[in-house]
Amino acid sequence: MTDSSLTPDIHARLAQTADVTLDEATTFADLTTLHLGGRPRLVVRCATAAAVSEVVRLLDAASVPLLVVAGGSNLVVADGDLDLVVVLLENDQVTMDAAGRVVAGAGAEWDAVVAAAVDAGLGGIECLSGIPGSAGATPVQNVGAYGAEIADVLVQVLLLDRTTGEVSWVPAVDLDLAYRYSNLKFTSRGVVLAIELQLTTDGLSAPLRFGELARRLGATSGEERWPVADVRAAVLELRHGKGMVVVESDHDTWSAGSFFTNPVVDPSVADAVQLLVRESRGDEDADRMPRFPAPGGEKLSAAWLIERAGFTRGYPGEGAPARLSTKHTLALTNRGSATTADLVALAREVRDGVREVFGVTLVPEPVWIGVSID
Ligand SMILES: Cc1cc2nc3c(=O)[nH]c(=O)nc-3n(C[C@H](O)[C@H](O)[C@H](O)COP(=O)(O)OP(=O)(O)OC[C@H]3O[C@@H](n4cnc5c(N)ncnc54)[C@H](O)[C@@H]3O)c2cc1C
């Protein structure tokens, strides 16, 4: 392993920081929902936003490589020893008021925030029920599901700017939030210490714009709003059916969620893909091909393409340590004994297979540390 700048002096200063616990035993396999990844130099558990700021400033000043981690549900981390320090966000305080203002510490479990908001009759995040991970990570890739995304309700984030070391509230509009993207993703420019949301207070959900969810509830138009608790229950049921809620005993959920983003392509590419499907699978399948207008072109369904490229649920089958989920082709899973190398090999096979058949290159959604699909 390369020499780290984590000197005994830095180590001692970390140990003396208030609300910080040093943990030398935890590995990335313990920290990630894929249960994969090797050993960092050290895990620094931070119980307050002040502790996070102090630790990150200290490590940055000494040029010690660090990775901010919360729920570990969007990370693919290399096997073996990693020359980096994990700053683990455990600042989990949440406040909400009758006017629908919610402030959550970055380390708060996201689904607990949703559950508490729904219990309080607040609306706007019920469609984001069951998404694993932390509140602070929700703006990082603008998490979304079932027709809603955090951008719809996010007012501002408390951000530690790692270039200046300063902490300030940054309006959501300055984060360039887009489909599974913000200007915080894939950069180390800042750490979200807390988020502020503005929710509705009439007990009703956001408009039910996602067909599958609307149908499940019996809603008739895309603008109907339903009681928040009913929507949360329906979303959780749908997600459980797809293995998209983490259940430790179910290897179909040892994943990073959707492994590839839905590709946005030029309409001419979408036409070409549809033609290929028409020629190989017939009109009925081709006519049902999902394609939706999106900024930059048309959005196709990654799961649909993966299936049409010949990768079925559970691929490559019993006994393989890394497999597609048996519930959803878009989730790559660790069946218990996989290494990151196994998972990456499967990811490459799927990406290359789709590219060979359709000429579309799928792009992974999670953040990769110490390893790459290329
Ligand atoms: C079963 C399953 C289902 C999922 N379903 C969805 C879904 O429906 N929609 C969706 O959008 N995502 C989904 N995901 C992906 C994932 O849950 C989200 O991206 C989640 O927000 C990640 O949060 P985390 O705390 O686990 O982040 P981590 O995995 O700990 O970190 C992910 C990245 O964000 C950075 N990061 C984390 N916290 C902060 C912070 N406070 N400040 C700055 N950077 C930070 C990390 O450094 C890392 O680069 C799913 C994942 C799983 C396993």
Cα distance, first to last residue?
22 Å
CATH topology of the largest domain: Uridine Diphospho-n-acetylenolpyruvylglucosamine Reductase, domain 3
Radius of gyration, CA atoms, in whole angstroms = 21 Å
Whole-number tally of structural domains: 3
Highest-level CATH class of the largest domain: Alpha Beta
Beta-strand fraction estimate: 15-25%
In the CATH hierarchy, the architecture of the largest domain is 2-Layer Sandwich
What is the share of helical residues?
Answer: 25-40%
The unreliable regions are none
Number of helices: 10
Write down the overall geometry. Answer: globular
What bound compounds does this protein have?
Answer: flavin-adenine dinucleotide
Order of helices and strands: HEHEHEEEEEHEEEEEHHEHHEEHEEHE
Mean pLDDT across residues: 96
**What is the number of E strands?**
18
Major sheet: arrangement of strands: 6-7-12-10-11
Q: Indicate the structural class.
A: alpha+beta
Largest sheet: 5 strands, antiparallel
Structure commentary:
InterPro entries: FAD-bd_PCMH, FAD-bd_PCMH-like_sf, FAD-bd_PCMH_sub1, FAD-bd_PCMH_sub2, MurB, MurB_C, MurB_C_sf, Oxid_FAD_bind_N. It catalyses: UDP-N-acetyl-alpha-D-muramate + NADP(+) = UDP-N-acetyl-3-O-(1-carboxyvinyl)-alpha-D-glucosamine + NADPH + H(+). Cell wall formation. It is built from ten helices and 18 strands. The chain is of the alpha+beta class and 374 residues long. It folds into three domains: 82 residues, Uridine Diphospho-n-acetylenolpyruvylglucosamine Reductase, domain 2; 148 residues, Uridine Diphospho-n-acetylenolpyruvylglucosamine Reductase, domain 3 (2-Layer Sandwich), CATH 3.30.465; 119 residues, Alpha-Beta Complex (Uridine Diphospho-n-acetylenolpyruvylglucosamine Reductase, domain 1). The strands form six sheets. A five-stranded antiparallel β-sheet has the order 6-7-12-10-11. A four-stranded mixed β-sheet has the order 1-2-5-3, covered by helices on one side. The longest helix is centred in the last third of the chain and has 19 residues. The model has no long low-confidence stretch (mean pLDDT 96). The site of flavin-adenine dinucleotide has 34 residues, from strand 3, strand 8 and strand 12.
